[in-house]
Structures are given as C-alpha cells and as structure tokens.
C-alpha cells in the first residue's frame, strides 16, 4: 500500500483501529482502488495473521455452486461430487475470509450466507452435520449496498450484519498526491521484473498522469505505466509512450459542456501523434498502438494533414 495523501493515511489509521476486532467490515470503492489489498492489510495487522486468508470471487457463486464452494459438500451430493470438500469457510477457520463483490450474490442465496454468519457454523451440501467455524469476515463491493437494500436487491438483515464498519476507499482522482508515489513504485518493480536499469518519467509525462482522472484507478495506472515502460527505449519515459486514451483525455477533456465526436477525437489524437513524430507514420502508429496500414487508412478517411521534417523524409 503506497500513498501519502490525507485520505490514504486515514485509511491506514482505520485499518489499524479495526484489524484486531472480530467485527465484519465492508470495504467499498470503485473498481481498481485496491479493496483486496486493504483486506489483506487488515488480516496482516490482526491476531489472525498467521492463519489463512481466503479470497472469494462472489460473481462466480450461483445456484448449487454457491453452497458447494462456500460451505463444502460431501461425496455424492451431486453429479460430479467424487469426494468430500471443505468449502471456503472451513478452509478459513481461524483466519479470514474475503468476500469480494458481495453485492453480486443473488438475493435468493443471501439468506444462506446470513444463517452461517449468525450461527457461526456451516453444513456441507448433502450433509446433515454442522461444523463450527471461527472466521473473520471481510467483504468488498463497488456498488451502493444501501441503495440496493432500498431497491430490494440486497437483504437488509445481511447488510446490517456485514456493514458493522464501512471502509470507503476514495478513487485515485480524489487523491492525486498518491499518483506519483504509486508511479515510482510501479516503475521500480518493472525494472526489477524486466531486469533493466530504472526508468523515470519526464516532467511533461508526470503532468499528464496527474491530470488524467484514472477511471480504472490504481489498476489502470499500473497497466498504463507498464505499457509506457515497455514502449520506451530510453531511460526517460516521454508522453508519447502513454496509452492513447490517456493522451486523448488531455487533447479532448470530457469535463466540458460539449463532447467531441469520435471522429473529431480520433483526428486530434492522430494529428498530435504525427506532430510528436515529425510526420513519421511508423513512429506515430507505434504511439497509437495500431498498425501503420490502419493509420494510413484513418489519415485518408479523416483527411489529417501530414507534414514531414527533412530528417524524417530522408529516413523514410
């Protein structure tokens, strides 16, 4: 967990405060904000740190699979059940279970989860025997559970059971102070991963990533920096190595009263790439992440002017 903003430090303070408690915690925030990372940090700060941390993707839990995956099953419980299984809750006994995207559990199955949380015991599918479990429950969602309750999409009793503490992670655009420390962290990791000398961002590149809203948050930032890293042959990462959507936002910001058309946005982006490469189509195509033939077709269709420098004309 990397950051220096007040929001980030507040999250760390909350994590330390609740980590040693046994209450359920709901971690909410947009996609890519690092909800599982926060859950793992809570587990590591708790007295359960030496026991299992079991992450569960709730988007995959439907129908019979819900009970089988969470509570286990006995041999012969259904077609294909060739052996007994523990299930995630029994596997997490003494530790922590992290229910990611808790909002995606179908409402008709939510009562089964609530019963386990209330009784502290699970009954494997196909069995009549219950097993007591001591599990710390953390969950995460990118949706408004309270609104879902109001719209009868989420059980109110389960909501109150899970939402003893709500830890909201602000999106990256609301804590820009964390962008550059995260960027440095990712670039250092990439240099180790690729076994290469470290690379750094040019000042203009830093300004661009600070101004971009990062709708995909930290996950998108990490992806964009890896793309920029591998596209940069020099030690300094220039703006043209950034993904096209990041450059497009700078050229055609969407916070104004009128949006550009798709064709206008493409024209501006292609013109900027050609300007940065002095009319070198191959280099411009590389920046845009497309083949040169496709770039030629787009230039012709959009009637984008191409002016080559003398050095560019000699080389190509």
Write structural notes for this entry.
- With about 325 residues, this protein is α/β, with parallel strands linked by helices.
- It folds into three domains: about 5-170, Rossmann fold (3-Layer(aba) Sandwich), CATH 3.40.50.300; about 175-250, Helicase, Ruva Protein, domain 3 (Orthogonal Bundle); about 260-315, Homeodomain-like (Arc Repressor Mutant, subunit A).
- About 45% of the residues lie in helices and about 10% in strands.
- It has 15 helices and nine strands.
- It has helices at about 5-20, 35-45, 65-70, 90, 105-120, 145-150, 155-160, 180-195, 205-210, 215-230, 245-250, 260-275, 280-290, 290-300, 310-315, and strands at about 25-30, 55, 95-100, 120, 130, 135-140, 165-170, 200, 235.
- Strands 2-3-6-1-7 form a five-stranded parallel sheet.
- A hairpin with an 8-residue loop joins strand 4 and strand 5 (about 130).
- Helix 8 packs across helix 10, helix 11 crosses helix 12 and helix 13 (about 280-290) packs across helix 14.
- The protein is elongated and about 75 Å long.
- About 30% of the residues are buried.
């Amino acid at each position: 967990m990397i950051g220096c903003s007040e929001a980030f430090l507040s999250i760390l303070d909350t994590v330390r405060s609740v980590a040693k408690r046994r209450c359920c915690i709901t971690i909410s925030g947009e996609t890519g904000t690092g909800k599982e990372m926060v859950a793992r940090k809570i587990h590591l700060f708790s007295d359960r740190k030496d026991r299992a941390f079991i992450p569960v993707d709730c988007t995959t839990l439907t129908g019979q699979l819900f009970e089988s995956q969470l509570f286990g099953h006995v041999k012969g419980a259904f077609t294909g059940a060739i052996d007994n299984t523990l299930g995630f809750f029994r596997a997490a006994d003494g530790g922590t279970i992290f229910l990611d995207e808790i909002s995606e559990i179908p409402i008709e199955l939510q009562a089964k989860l609530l019963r386990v949380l209330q009784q502290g015991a699970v009954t494997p599918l196909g069995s009549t025997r219950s097993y007591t479990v001591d599990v710390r429950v953390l969950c995460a969602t990118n949706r408004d559970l309270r609104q879902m309750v109001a719209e009868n999409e989420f059980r109110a009793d389960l909501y109150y059971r899970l939402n003893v503490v709500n830890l909201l992670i602000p999106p990256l655009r609301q804590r820009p102070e964390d962008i550059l420390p995260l960027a440095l962290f990712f670039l250092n990791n990439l240099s180790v991963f690729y076994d290469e000398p470290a690379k750094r961002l040019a000042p203009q590149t830093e300004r661009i990533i600070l101004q971009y809203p990062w709708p995909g948050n930290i996950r998108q930032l990490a992806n964009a920096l890896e793309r920029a890293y591998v596209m940069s042959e020099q030690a300094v990462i220039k703006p043209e190595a950034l993904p096209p959507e990041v450059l497009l936002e700078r050229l055609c910001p969407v916070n104004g009263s009128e949006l550009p058309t798709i064709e206008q946005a493409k024209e501006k982006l292609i013109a900027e790439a050609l300007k940065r490469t002095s009319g070198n189509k191959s280099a411009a195509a590389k920046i845009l992440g497309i083949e040169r033939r496709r770039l030629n077709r787009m230039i012709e269709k959009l009637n984008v002017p191409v002016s080559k420098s003398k050095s560019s004309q000699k080389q190509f």
